[in-house]
């Protein structure tokens, strides 16, 4: 079925430029090569650090977990079934000419739920690392159940960031930044005909992109974040904190001591780690799965099936090496300057901003701190949830997004 005929798949008549339907399909030979590589990939011999006794995964992925995950990936995981389920949503590819980059042409893949309502509110949702567009599918599933194409109050656009999965990679001959990705996503929203206004939403790196969109482009009218990484404000001592916020800051301090080595590797030796993880699907699984297993709330763990789907998307599109460029802004030379994380140094959002706080976030920044970074007009504070609320608690994230949009879009 063509995406243009799938429910919620009718592109607005105001769209322009080259926007084509797209279905995911991995070539059979690539599937066979993957299976052979996975089969031949060895698991490290037992060590003190990789034993199952390390219940908190203090030292990373345990050996027993990886052995079982490899078995499931080889014997039970059905990529063709995953493809079928992913393709139930309308997928598209847009060709975008970057006028701010000598007219270079880029391709952005995106999933969308389009409404037939003339007053539908455009919302663009940006993912982060190690996620893909598929992170937001549980929220899209809730929307498909709650609304019809005739009643959906929104146009929901979920791009694959440049360098991720089915979007084109950053150019080889010049630098690429979070602001560069934001520029393309903004161009996509204009190409879809949303020049009169749209709302941005995001988590992780996608939160940085969403903040850049709101701070840079007048067409982006408001922004909702479920992640707001930042440095400690100069007046932090004068900002009252709840007990939960104090505990969240302790979690952030612990993460900075024991959990961010991956980011330093991404930011300072991206070429090396890119080569390493392109050589073995089991290596890629180890690197990415650890994040899903430790960054989510222990009460809302990410299932192995979801982890394998996300890692498979990275493997089959060969996108790991082209997905980690944002970390150079944090851990490279520019990362030594004080400012907001992920390329947002001193970026203040003078527009309506919403913030969802989850206690198991890597850096659950206090509401009073986030107020220093923008015109915060809506806040949702939750007792459960971590770094992946779209996967962990999609109904809560959707409720927050709808609450925010309803309060600020006039």
CATH evolutionary superfamily: Alpha/Beta hydrolase fold, catalytic domain
Number of domains: 1
Name of the top-level CATH class:
Alpha Beta
Radius of gyration: 21 Å
| CATH fold category name | Rossmann fold
Q: What is the helix/strand order?
A: EHHHEEEHEHEHEHHHHHHHEHEHH
- Terminal CA distance reads 37 Å
- What's the rounded overall pLDDT mean? 94
Count of distinct strands: 9
Level-2 CATH architecture: 3-Layer(aba) Sandwich
Number of contiguous helices: 16
Sheet with the most strands: spatial strand order: 1-2-3-5-4-6-7-8-9
Question: What is the overall shape?
Answer: globular
Task: Provide the β-strand percentage band.
Answer: 15-25%
Measured as a percent range, the helix fraction is: 25-40%
The helix/strand class is: alpha/beta
Largest β sheet strand count, sense and barrel closure: 9 strands, mixed
Family: Belongs to the peptidase S33 family.
Active site: 204, 327, 387
InterPro entries: AB_hydrolase_fold, Epoxide_hydro_N, Epoxide_hydrolase
GO molecular function, one term: epoxide hydrolase activity
Describe this structure in words.
With about 400 residues, the chain is α/β, with parallel strands linked by helices. It has one domain: 3-Layer(aba) Sandwich (Rossmann fold). It contains 16 helices and 9 strands. It has a 9-stranded mixed sheet, with helices on both faces. Strand 8 (about 350-355), helix 14 and strand 9 (about 375-380) form a beta-alpha-beta unit. The longest helix is centred in the middle third of the chain and has 16 residues, at about 245-260. It is globular, with a radius of gyration of 21 Å. The chain starts with 17 loop residues before the first strand and ends with a helix. The model has no long low-confidence stretch (mean pLDDT about 95).
């Amino acid at each position: 079925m063509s995406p243009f005929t799938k429910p919620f798949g009718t592109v607005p008549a105001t769209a322009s430029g080259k926007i084509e339907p797209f279905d995911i399909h991995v070539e059979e030979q690539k599937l066979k090569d993957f299976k052979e590589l996975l089969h031949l990939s060895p698991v490290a011999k037992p060590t003190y650090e990789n034993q199952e006794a390390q219940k908190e995964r203090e030292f990373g992925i345990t050996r027993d977990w990886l052995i079982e995950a490899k078995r499931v990936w080889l014997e039970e995981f059905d990529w063709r079934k995953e493809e079928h389920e992913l393709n139930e949503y309308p997928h598209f590819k847009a060709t975008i000419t970057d006028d701010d980059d000598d007219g270079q042409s880029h391709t952005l893949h995106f999933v969308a739920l389009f409404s037939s309502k003339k007053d539908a509110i455009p919302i663009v949702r940006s993912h982060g690392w190690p996620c893909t567009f598929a992170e937001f599918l549980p929220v899209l599933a809730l929307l498909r159940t709650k609304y019809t194409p005739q009643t959906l109050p929104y146009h929901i656009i979920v791009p694959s960031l440049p360098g991720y999965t089915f979007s084109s990679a950053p150019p080889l001959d010049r630098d690429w930044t979070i602001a560069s990705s934001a520029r393309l996503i903004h161009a996509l929203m204009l190409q879809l005909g949303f020049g009169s206004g749209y709302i941005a939403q995001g988590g992780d790196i996608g939160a940085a992109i969403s903040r850049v969109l709101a701070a840079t482009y007048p067409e982006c009218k408001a922004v909702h974040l479920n992640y707001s990484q930042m440095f400690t404000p100069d007046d932090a001592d004068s900002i009252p904190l709840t007990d939960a916020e104090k505990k969240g800051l302790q979690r952030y301090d612990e993460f900075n001591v024991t959990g961010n080595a991956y980011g330093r590797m991404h930011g300072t030796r991206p070429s090396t780690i890119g080569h390493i993880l392109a050589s073995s699907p089991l290596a890629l699984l180890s690197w990415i799965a650890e994040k899903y297993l430790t960054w989510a709330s222990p009460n809302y763990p990410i299932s192995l099936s979801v982890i394998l789907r996300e890692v498979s998307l990275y493997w089959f599109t060969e996108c790991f090496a082209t997905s980690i460029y944002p970390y150079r802004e944090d851990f490279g030379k520019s990362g030594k300057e004080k400012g907001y994380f992920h390329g947002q140094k001193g970026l203040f959002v003078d527009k309506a901003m919403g913030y969802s706080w989850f206690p198991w976030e890597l850096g659950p920044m206090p509401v009073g701190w986030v107020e220093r970074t923008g015109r915060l007009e809506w806040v949702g504070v939750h007792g459960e949830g971590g770094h992946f609320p779209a996967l962990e608690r999609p109904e809560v994230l959707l409720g927050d997004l709808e609450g925010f949009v309803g309060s600020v879009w006039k």
